[in-house]
Design goal:
Strand order of the largest sheet: 3-2-1-4-5-10-6
CATH architecture of the domain at 3-135 and 161-191 and 242-251: 3-Layer(aba) Sandwich
Number of helices: 9
Shape: globular
CATH class of the domain at 3-135 and 161-191 and 242-251: Alpha Beta
Order of helices and strands: HHEHEHEEHEHHEEHHEEE
Radius of gyration: 18 Å
Largest sheet: 7 strands, mixed
Length: about 250
């Protein structure tokens, strides 16, 4: 997916749960006043602003220019930049790196981890949460099945995410130099906002699954996905995404 084309307004309006759950990751980070912390994959800036409120010298970066522009408009008191996690310009600059719901978008995890390691001062820490092994399994299997049944091609190269196991990711962390002090993989069923929650989620995050499907045909496929998953991922309060999250903490 070209994240530069993300709809930042849809993200804020319908996917605030991303930032809301990120507050739990801030607890794991345990930020201290005056620390310099990089919010890696800052989105539209809500969690960077929470860190700012706690007295942190925070810098926010994101690969999406639309997200960064929205963050700058919302929080002009915080520096935000468009950067690529696999080619960070920083050297021993931060006391900590904080990342929420981002690293599953990075298909070169060791390169990304090496860049994060270099960006930290000695004794600095990386704290992150992202999609882990088994994340959105029901949802994506049904999506792929419906795309193929509609006569369109789906290959592994169209799968936009990287969902590692604890062993796989912590091994990469150790290989670049981190001392892993915490790792936890857990189920986190996540409520999607309102009756169109599943549709909004697909339009926001899963465009790659239907990259060659005409717009009008996409609507029909999404309707069939909703029908197929109604008895699996829909409850009284609305759609539930079958999230599995991986939390990690490492020290340089």
């Amino acid at each position: 997916m070209d994240t530069n084309k993300w709809n930042a307004h849809l993200y804020d309006a319908k996917h605030r749960f991303v930032s809301d759950y990120g507050n739990d990751v801030i607890k794991l980070l345990a930020p201290k006043q005056h620390e310099k912390i990089l919010d890696l994959g800052c989105g539209t800036g809500d969690l960077a602003n929470e860190l700012y409120r706690r007295g942190v010298n925070v810098v926010g970066i994101d690969h999406s220019s639309t997200m960064v522009e929205q963050a700058k408009q919302k929080y002009p008191h915080i520096p935000f930049y468009v950067e690529d996690i696999t080619n960070l310009p920083y050297v021993e600059e931060f006391d900590a790196i904080f990342s929420n719901a981002v690293l599953h978008w990075v298909k070169y995890p060791k390169t990304a981890l090496d860049n994060m390691y270099k960006s930290l001062r000695v004794g600095g820490r990386l704290v992150a949460e992202f999609g882990g092994e088994g994340n959105v399994h029901e949802l994506t299997n049904t999506l792929i099945q419906q795309v193929r049944e509609a006569g369109y091609t789906f290959t592994d190269s169209n799968f936009p995410w990287y969902f590692p196991s604890i062993v796989e990711y912590t091994t990469f962390m150790e290989q670049v130099g981190f001392q892993v002090t915490y790792a936890h993989l857990y189920d986190r069923p996540t409520l999607l906002k309102d009756a169109d929650g599943l549709r909004n989620w697909i339009n926001m995050f899963a465009e790659d699954f239907m990259y060659d499907v005409p717009v009008m045909e996409r609507e029909k496929i999404i309707e069939r996905i909703e029908q197929a998953l109604k008895g699996v991922l829909y409850q009284d309060d609305g759609w539930i995404a079958d999230y599995v999250r991986l939390q990690v903490k490492g020290v340089k």
